[in-house]
Amino acid sequence: MSYHAPVADIAFTLRHVAGLDRLAEEGAFPDLTPDLVGQILEEAGKFAGERIAPLNQIGDRCGAQLVDGAVRMPPGWREVYRAWCDAGWNAVSAPVDCGGQGLPHLVNAACIEMWNAASMAFGLGPLLTMSAVEAIAAHGSDQLKRIYLGKLVSGEWMGTMNITEAQAGSDLGALRTRAERQPDGSYRLHGTKVFITYGEHDLTDNIIHLVLARLPDAPEGTRGLSLFLVPKVLVADDGTLGARNDVVCTGIEKKLGIHASPTCTMQFGDREGAVGYLVGEENRGLTCMFTMMNHARLAVGLQGVAIADRAFQQALSYARDRRQGRAPGWSGEGMSPIVEHPDVKRMLLEMRAKTEAARALCYAVAGALDRAAFAPAAAARASADDVASLLTPVAKAFSTDIGVEVASLGVQVHGGAGYVEETGAAQHLRDARIAAIYEGTNGIQAVDLVSRKLPARGGQVARGHISELRGILQQARSANDSGLGGTAVWIGQSVDALERTTHWMLDAVETRPADALAGATPYLRLFALATGGAYLAKKALAAMAELRAGSTDPHHGLRVASARFFAAHLATAAAGLEAAITEGAEAIGTAFGDAA
Amino acid sequence: MSYHAPVADIAFTLRHVAGLDRLAEEGAFPDLTPDLVGQILEEAGKFAGERIAPLNQIGDRCGAQLVDGAVRMPPGWREVYRAWCDAGWNAVSAPVDCGGQGLPHLVNAACIEMWNAASMAFGLGPLLTMSAVEAIAAHGSDQLKRIYLGKLVSGEWMGTMNITEAQAGSDLGALRTRAERQPDGSYRLHGTKVFITYGEHDLTDNIIHLVLARLPDAPEGTRGLSLFLVPKVLVADDGTLGARNDVVCTGIEKKLGIHASPTCTMQFGDREGAVGYLVGEENRGLTCMFTMMNHARLAVGLQGVAIADRAFQQALSYARDRRQGRAPGWSGEGMSPIVEHPDVKRMLLEMRAKTEAARALCYAVAGALDRAAFAPAAAARASADDVASLLTPVAKAFSTDIGVEVASLGVQVHGGAGYVEETGAAQHLRDARIAAIYEGTNGIQAVDLVSRKLPARGGQVARGHISELRGILQQARSANDSGLGGTAVWIGQSVDALERTTHWMLDAVETRPADALAGATPYLRLFALATGGAYLAKKALAAMAELRAGSTDPHHGLRVASARFFAAHLATAAAGLEAAITEGAEAIGTAFGDAA
Hints:
By secondary structure, chain A is of the alpha+beta class.
């Protein structure tokens, strides 16, 4: 159950799909050579494999334990977390002026994949801290920045996001936690938040909660939400820790997976009220949340990639060792390794191709976020921001869906041993399952895609994206390399289907919203298959070019194989998805009566 | 987390898809009126819902516990098991001459679905006993039958199947457990079996193990396996219990799910050798296994149906209660129940349609097994046996695959609550996952389908099956009912694709076996989608006929809705699967080098 970070494939994807070179060329990161990025990724991979990966199974077995309102993390976790912070990994893409390293999001995205592949429960905590940094850096007062930002960037303190309440999950308008203004400019909060990730733990001496709450005179719905910073331990102006704030963890969930990630019920203001400080403006809390949303959703998508890759590595290793039967064409002694059996090979190729496609999608989003932040021209920044917004729900939902699918295939490759917890394959499936739910369920992502992202700028962003995919296909057809087989044909058909359904969807969302919503999930899947397939073709073209230039890197052949498999076995689902989207709306008209 | 057995839909499927009426008309079961079957199903449903379902979550939490070589079952399990046996449920389809009720397999299949929906870990044990009854009834000596059969039929003793060894999972030729002939005609067995379901427990005073082992002079491979009956406690000729046999449980697995089903490592002959009795002939053990195989695989398929239905019921109930946001067209007060949101409705319809299709497939197999056993004409029996053999791997693999898919959707419908174990949705996913693995992994089922079942009788059985599907489609087109929407068109296209890929596969399996095996799993899926879709259309036609005849049964509308949804959203995958099967073989040619 070791983890070997796929540094070579990540670096290749960063360069050939996500536009890392372009970012460096454009001048925002003049020192960021491929060599330097390679060194960073190597170091991150080493830490992930050597230090974090060994925590994963013990974390699952021991879980986070709540004792008298305090959460005890599993053995070894605190030490590794501290070492991870000391090495600077919490600060990779944080701004330089608050102690960060100011590297592109692309580099941090690669690191996030590795931390989460090594242990998703471990990798999850810092994601919340990074979101808190982002929110405070963008919207916090100078005082809040001065007191909190440095320690959140270093990881000395961790951050949380307190959004969900029992009656308000996907529907934030229903939130009830209230905040009252105090004479000194601070606020007092009262309310109960549920499903708060890393809401309480013993990794750090303080925990900085960001909390959505409602002022007494606030409008109803989401326009009446404000964002507050509520520290677990109050902090004096000079940064020293004072009294405990009126915030307690009253329970942690017993979950299917990510057992070491404490999912807390947080009680704010059970006594005199929890002291909080406004972040941004009153009633603009949701705007602050939106600042973080693309990054947070991308990070969860990366968790899907991460767990898929981990599950793939483990399944491949097992399939090479385990011997059963004799595969067709097997000429070795005795039984063949099961990796030689065509159906097992098919499963492994499906695992790998899905993982690579999701990785390409996620890194493309990260690249767009970087260009949106750092491109020299304002128009380029705006355009990149549009692309990032369009692709984010696709990357989040597809990557986390395939995370579950790939982890489930990983169990299957192991046969009966996969069902035994000791093997570790089942843990990946249990862990992966949450990523399709949190940070906006995948159904919500699909609704976001068709009802907000697609119609943006009259559909122009989506049309631009489809043009980009057509450009890749044109290159694939021009290359005319037999190694690609029917890749260009199959991906071309999926892009055609994407274009037709995009037109259909742009019309439907205006005129027949229920039909549009009924087709939202299959549309998102089609979008991801066409995009992921084209990106894999792009990787394959780059790999073939390097092979022609004399490279003997054995990864290149696998890149071509992934693109072909994805095209023939997965992107071919496009025709069926198109039918489900455009013809299937009526089939969802029936309500479930009492007789169901 | 209550369970309401879907008695009406089961009975409807038995009559309109599985041929229950025909079975009665042909004379084998003259007293078996629809009313009587309805009463039996009602009673079974009541027992399942009232007595077994409450065991499910406690079984998951407590699990089966191994203490000093003995397995303690969870609280309440022994009492309910005894009551279940006392009510005669273990004996539904066992032969009358050994104490069974001699009812058709169809009726028992319906019961099996209900026991397993109520608690898969509970339902699993008796499946093994039923298999043991079948093997002993078919191949056991008169003495073995006299001593063991009655108590296995009543359920006073339970049975097990001891096949797998650590080095021999899917590959039975690699089994090593040895058996030595004794002067008195008995045998002594030595060896270690793993993954033995219900190998040890405290539900009954004796456990009858059926064990595959190898005689010293046996040929290598599967032709050298013999089947032995090895009781946990030795039984005197008059049926009284004597000394403990030399069989011990040395460990139980900590598994992803079905925690209350003890999965045992069984040590045979650690001391003087475990006393065993030959079942059937020496070296013909695999023939005896084949006797049971169709029934056992069907039973596991029914577990897939069962867990899918349970997950669906729970998700629907949650979706009706939980309120979030406002669905398009919602005119009620405040937030809508989430069942009104199109994407949630889509998930629920997918769950229901897949469950119904798998149910139809499984009951079609059960009906074929009944006709194979009871049809008056020998030719009809042989033909039904062929159909059962062809459809069994499809029913097993598809039903258990959708069991996992539906249970996973059930988690998704619950959102964050689905990830919390207390909710119970996650348990269904954990439980369901094993059914795709045991009793022949679903990959093995696909290989069995294309390499053995399809080529049987020169492909004639498959062609006959496709003709049957075309007959249903003809009826659907003739009915020309707008309620069916495009059902006939979409299912028609899937049957066309099935016919073309069947020709391709029959050729490939002869000439390019690796290509055939590479396409086996997508081919099985296509087979199931075309067949399941046609069967749902058949149900919908029967429902529409009853509606026209004045029925006001609210289930009928849902049957039509399921058929439409399945056609438009699921059977439309046919085109993509056809491409994956016929074009995708080459894409699986690449071996995984060291660089993967």
